[in-house]
Write a sequence for this structure.
């Protein structure tokens, strides 16, 4: 299949390279010319085990290309991935200006033929309809020149193009340092859309991964594919990261109690982790959680709850425990 990935940050570059590796023809688009030159030379701007090798092999096979020309990428792709950053704003909300710019740019360059626009970026819940509207804004802006030239009316042309694309939410669950492995060995693939055609194209795209053709253990059952609505797909991403952050805050809270009562948190974690309902992952007590995703996603979910008039007390406590954990760690030095 023909794929365009817009944004070559951590998620976009890994997604594009891995899709090219499994046989799709991928064009990765980035507005940073120096970065594009670097990638064209076969070098990765980020370090991820196995990524450079996949990039080089796919490029040599003619399956992976890099450009700063958004119009060329949109024209090439049957499936267009939006994979740009959504950093946290001071109030905890997500900064979606880059997603908006890309969606508008896609609309300005749609020229007919069905497209699936895939939101890979972590966006506020409910962004699927918003992305569609921004794409249509881009379409409408381009149609103004058509109307001025005496062509079809802007409304007629916009309606026609609107029928030629659908928006799908496809959140990523990649770990830094294991992103290539996670792409080929996912726990699940989540697809959110009300478009049967869009979902079917995404299922076709991921068939080699679902069938574990590139997995470490090819004997495992097919990867589960969760097909749902857009809002639920977006919530799955936030809920997964918020749950893992809560699990870390929980074990750190238990560790602090162990310090006071004379318990061994390592043994306690082992004992509760053997319970199949709990599992042993994310039960390592320490300084707390951080990184590029957990803080941003937990705060964004809290902010969303506040926007809808609900106080997410557990999530706020998760953040509070995490902030206190750093002070406790310093006190122990």
């Amino acid at each position: 299949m023909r794929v365009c990935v817009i944004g070559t940050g951590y998620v976009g570059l890994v997604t594009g390279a891995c899709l090219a590796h499994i046989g799709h023809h991928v064009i990765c688009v980035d507005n940073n010319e120096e970065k594009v030159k670097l990638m064209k030379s076969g070098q990765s701007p980020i370090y991820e085990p196995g990524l450079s090798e996949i990039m080089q092999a796919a490029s040599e096979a003619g399956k992976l290309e890099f450009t700063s020309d958004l119009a060329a990428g949109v024209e090439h792709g049957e499936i267009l991935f939006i994979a740009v950053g959504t950093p946290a704003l001071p109030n905890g909300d997500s900064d979606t200006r880059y997603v908006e710019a890309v969606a508008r740019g896609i609309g300005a360059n749609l020229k007919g033929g069905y497209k699936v626009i895939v939101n890979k970026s972590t966006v506020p819940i409910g962004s699927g309809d918003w992305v569609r509207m921004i794409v249509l804004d881009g379409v409408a802006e381009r149609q103004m020149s058509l109307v001025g030239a005496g062509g079809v009316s802007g409304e007629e042309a916009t309606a026609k193009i609107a029928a030629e694309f659908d928006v799908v939410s496809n959140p990523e669950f990649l770990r830094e340092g294991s992103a290539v492995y996670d792409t080929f060995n996912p726990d699940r693939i989540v697809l959110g859309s009300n478009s049967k055609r869009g979902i079917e194209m995404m299922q076709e795209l991921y068939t080699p991964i679902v069938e574990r053709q590139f997995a470490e253990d090819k004997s495992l059952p097919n990867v589960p594919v969760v097909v749902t609505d857009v809002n639920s797909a977006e919530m799955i991403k936030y809920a997964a990261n918020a749950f893992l952050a809560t699990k870390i805050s929980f074990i750190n809270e238990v560790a602090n109690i162990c310090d006071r009562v004379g318990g061994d948190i390592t043994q306690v974690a082992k004992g509760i982790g053997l319970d199949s309902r709990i599992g042993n992952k994310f039960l390592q007590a320490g300084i707390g959680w951080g990184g590029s995703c957990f803080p941003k996603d937990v705060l964004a979910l809290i902010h969303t709850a506040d926007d809808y008039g609900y106080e997410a007390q557990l999530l706020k406590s998760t953040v509070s425990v995490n902030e206190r954990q750093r002070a406790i760690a310093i006190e122990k030095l």
User: Anything to note?
Assistant: The two ends are 55 Å apart (CA to CA). The chain has 13 helices and eight strands.
